[in-house]
Amino acid sequence: MRYQYESKIRPLDFWALSMYRTYHSLVGVCNIVFGIAMILLTLRFWTQASDGVQALLFLACLLIPVIQPLGVYLKAKAQVSVIAQGTQLVFSEDGIHVTLGQQQEHIRWDKVKGVRREANMVIVYTDANHGYMLTNRVLGKEKDAFFQYVEEHLSVKGSASKKSKKRKG
Asked: What is the C-alpha separation between 136 and 121, in angstroms, rounded?
């Protein structure tokens, strides 16, 4: 089997991934609690507050639902501007073949660290912090079959390394 894709990353993809990770963590829970607390505080003291305090309360209410996502989007836009677009990825039995312009790289399955589904995408990790993002838009109807294909190759790699550890010990 062989899967071939062109990686096309948009700022919205990085934004969705960042927001997904934030709101699926303790930071996200804190954001929600802070946002609700600010709204309740604003409702409670709005009529008693001066114009300056009302402006601060209003801005604080906008911090989590508006300002933070906007800041994350601007950061995502900057990230996309520095990554090379048009990377060709071919997933085959012997590994991942990566082509960008005239540059080519081959990554064997035993060098791939993992695969994960997140925020409408599949990320194939080549090390602890780096990987290739393939959005559902790029994967299309093959997303489930592709994810299973990569997982199978990683589990075969994992069982081979377990066997070699058993032989050494």
From this structure: 5
Q: pLDDT tens-digit profile of 44-60?
A: 999 999 999 999 999 99
The confidence score (pLDDT) of residue 83 equals 86
DSSP 123-156: EEESSSS-EEEEEHHHHGGGHHHHHHHHHHHHHH
- Helix, strand, coil share (%) of the chain residues, nearest 5: 60, 20, 20
DSSP 3-state of 21: helix
Write down the pTM of the prediction: 0.81
Return d(Cα 89, Cα 98) in angstroms, integer: 5
Residue matched to tokens 């899967």: 3
Which residue reads 């300002």 in tokens? 67
- Provide CB contacts within 8 A for 92, sequence distance 6+: 1, 2, 3
Look at residues 7, 19, 22 and name the one whose alpha carbon lies nearest to residue 123: 7
Buried b (16+ CB within 10 A) or exposed e, 63-82: ebeeeeeeebbeebeeebee
What's at 95, amino acid-wise?
G
